Hints:
- The chain is flat and about 45 Å long.
- It contains four helices and no strands.
- It is 70% helix and 0% strand.
- By secondary structure, it is mainly α.
Amino acid sequence: MDLKTRKLKFIEAFLRLENEEAVIKLEKLLIKQRQEDPASNPSPMTVEEVNARIDRSLDDSKKGRLTESSKLKSEIEGWS
Length: 80
């Protein structure tokens, strides 16, 4: 099973949790993991980086390099 599938299955199981104590433990584990992994806690973007990303996004839109949300949703549903 690939990582994306494992994550989706984990999310599904997490959403079914009714035990608040279990949710708290998972939250603490996630916070600890983020603190230990600098890649999961990126630094804020500069104004220039935000503007460059906006420009790229607008260009993608003009050139039709988009994915419809309904198509993406169908694709995600096929992952499990």
